[in-house]
Write a structure and sequence with these properties.
Number of strands: 21
CATH topology of one domain: Elongation Factor Tu (Ef-tu), domain 3
Radius of gyration: 38 Å
CATH class of one domain: Mainly Beta
CATH superfamily of one domain: Efflux pump adaptor protein, beta barrel domain
Order of helices and strands: HEEHEEEEEHHEEEHEEEEEEEEEEE
Amino acid sequence: MKINKKLLILTAVFSCLLVACGAKKDGVDNKPSTMEEIHREKGKPAKVIPVSKQTLTDYRIFSGAISGKQQASVTAKIFDPIKVIKVKIGSSVKKDQVLAEYSFTGDNTGKEQAEEQVKLLDASVKRLQEVYSKGGISKQDLEQAETQLRIAQMSLETARRASVILAPTSGVVTSINIEQGQIPQRDSPIFTVAQLNQVILTIPVSTIDIGAFKKGLNASVEINNKEINGKVTQVPMAANEMTRLFPIEITFDNKDRQLLPGMFVTAKVAANKIEAIAVPNQAIVYKNGTNYLWTIVNGKAKRNIVAVGVSDATYTQIVSGIELSDTVMVEGMSKMNEGDKVLIVDSN
């Protein structure tokens, strides 16, 4: 524990005065007192503060992966080579925009056949419309031909969509897992499209911690020394059957795109606030796996083993080991031993 400069100066001055006073007594030179003798007589200097009650925020730390808002992946419907990729990672796309086209092979002639069928039926309908206008056929015959054309056009659209890869939603292309000329693997995602103005962090929470979560809790992550704030937006009512963990969702505004899908980040969630007996963080000494505080009893140092709880940037909750009426040392502990006499130094 770092000792306050003022504490060091006071100690030095105090020691010098004692040495000077003891150097000559009754006209006889005396041997100067040692620092140990000074401390034994007057006490070891320490700065102290009363134990107090504080309102502390109970922060919980969890890690998880970032995903885009309304994120969707595209898998191949046919397994032909990719002829051309029309987008790149970071491209903004709209729903049903063409992301890539398949190469033409002898196995994917459906589109060409549908196109020819539409051409034939379209020409036939136009001729029948002329004949109908002259009274050569009934309206029923014309409507039947027009229905056949509409069915053929729908088949063509189905075949067209099968010959290309379309964006499943509007957003940003966040991953491309294939190259031009490659054949896609069955059920493997080829493209991922997500909205990035907002992103979601999914964190796995155990049964022990789930009770502390509710919608609206504040949370934050730190990226490149910048804190990004978000809120808990989804608390499931049931655990994942495989992991037995609850997938909590935290939503972050992400207009500057600091958070990207696939990032593994650590979030600090403000679970709740508590009223607690607390001491300044610098009062706690940690050694050999044990936390302890130094108190003063009848003017002498006493080491108290304590159990700590919630902490923030300034204070730490003390669950057991001291009382609210105690006074604890915040400086000078490094030189203390159990039972040492203590000289309390003014904190101002």
